[in-house]
Amino acid sequence: MTKISTIKEAWRIMYQDRTCPPYAVLRDPAQTENVAEHRKGCPFCAMKSTESIDYEAWEELGTQMAHDWPKPQKPSVQVGQIWSLVATKGGWDDRFRHVNPPMVLILDVFEDVSGIRVTQLFDVKALMADGDVDLGPRFGVAEAWNTYALDQADLDSCFGTVGHDDLDSVRNAVLSEAHNVEDDSIVWHFRQLELEVASFMAMEAIGRLMGRQERNAVRQELADAEMVRGKILAFDPRIRLPKVEDGLKMLAEANLPDELMLKAAAVEGEQLPFTVVSIGGPTNPCRGFLAEVLGSDLEDTVIRITGRLPEECREGLLFAWWRRPDIGLEEGVAEFDPSAGIFSAVFPGKSQLDFNIGEPVLLLVQVNDAQD
C-alpha cells in the first residue's frame, strides 16, 4: 500500500472536516437526495456509502458524552475568545458539499450592530504556512489571512480565551503584507477551500449586520424629538403627536387625520393600522396604512405577530413595539421580507396578561436621499 504523505493526509482530513455532512445530516430522510449527490463527487463519503452505521450506538455515545463532558460556556462576547458557530450556519453549497461551521477567534466586537470580526481556525498543523499563527495544542491555528464579519447570534459555545501575546501575534499577522503560497500547491488548494468556507459563513450574516446599521442610522436621524416634531407638523399641522423624547416612538404613536389614513379593505381577517413615514428631507411625510395580520400567538414568554404589508409599503425599515395601556411602548424585534411583504415581530419577556390587554404597533420608515 502506498503511504500518503503527511501534508496530503492533512489536506484529506481538513477537506472531510469542512465539506462532508455530519451524521445528523446523513441520517436525515429529508437530506437523502443531497447526500446521494454529495457521494457522487466525494470519494471519502462514497467509500462510506456501503458501510453499516449503527446510528443508535452513535446517539447513545453522544448522549453519554454530553452528560460527562463539561458544559460549554456562553459568556459575554469578548475579543480573544474562541467560539464554535451554531450548526445552522452549515449547509449545502451548489456543488453538494456540506459546508460545516469552523471554530473562530474573535478579533473585534461591534456592539452597535451586535457584530464581530473573526479569524478562522484549523487544527492540522501540517497545512500551516505564511500568515498562519500557532495558538498551541488547545486552540489550533489562526488564519490571519482569512478574517470576516459575523453576527454575535452566530456564536454557539465559548471554549476559552487566548493569551494577550497570541492575540497580538494574530493581529500583527493580519496587518502584515500579503501572505503568499505556491500556486496549485496543496496549501494553496486548502486556502481556497478556507476562503470558500469563510464566504459561506459571512454571506448570510452580512445582510443582518447591514440591516442593523441602517436601523441605527434611522435612530440617529430621529434622535432629536423636537426636530422630528417640527418636520411632521410642517408636513401636516393636524397630526397629533405624543410628548416623548424618542422621535421614533413619537412617529409610531402619531395620530393622523382621516385624510391620511387608508380605509379598511373589504377582506376577511384582522387588520392592523400602522404608519409609514419618509425621512431625509425638510419634512417627514406620513401616511396611514393597514397590515393584514396572519398570525398572533404567545409561546412561553414570547409574543409573535406575523402579517403582510400592502403592496404600496414594500420598501423601508420596519420597527415594532408592544403597547400596554398601563405601560406604554416596549420595542421588539421586527423582520421584513420586502419581496413578499411578509413581516414578523417578536416580543420576548411577555405574559398572558400582556397578550390579552396589549397590542402591536408598527412603523415603516422610508429613507429618501432627497425630497422635493
CATH class of the largest domain: Mainly Beta
Strand order of the largest sheet: 13-12-16-9-10-11-15-14
User: Nearest-angstrom radius of gyration?
Assistant: 26 Å
Sum up the overall morphology in one term: elongated
User: What is the strand tally?
Assistant: 16
How many individual domains? 2
Largest sheet: 8 strands, mixed
How far apart, in Å, are the first and last alpha carbons? 78 Å
Q: What is the helix content?
A: 25-40%
| Main structural class | alpha+beta
Mean pLDDT: 89
The unreliable regions are: none
Report the portion of residues in β strands: 25-35%
Polypeptide structure, described:
The chain is an alpha+beta fold and 372 residues long. The chain has 2 domains: 6-216, SH3 type barrels (Roll), CATH 2.30.30.110; 225-367, Immunoglobulin-like. The chain is 32% helix and 29% strand. It contains 10 helices and 16 strands. The chain has an 8-stranded mixed sheet with strand order 13-12-16-9-10-11-15-14. It has a 6-stranded antiparallel sheet with strand order 6-7-5-4-1-8, with helices on both faces. A two-stranded antiparallel ribbon has the order 2-3. It is elongated and about 80 Å long. The model has no long low-confidence stretch (mean pLDDT 89).
Short description:
This protein is an alpha+beta fold and 372 residues long. It contains 10 helices and 16 strands. It has 2 domains: 6-216, SH3 type barrels, CATH 2.30.30.110; 225-367, Immunoglobulin-like.
Keywords:
about 375 residues, SH3 type barrels, Immunoglobulin-like, eight-stranded mixed sheet, six-stranded antiparallel sheet, 10 helices, about 30% helix, elongated
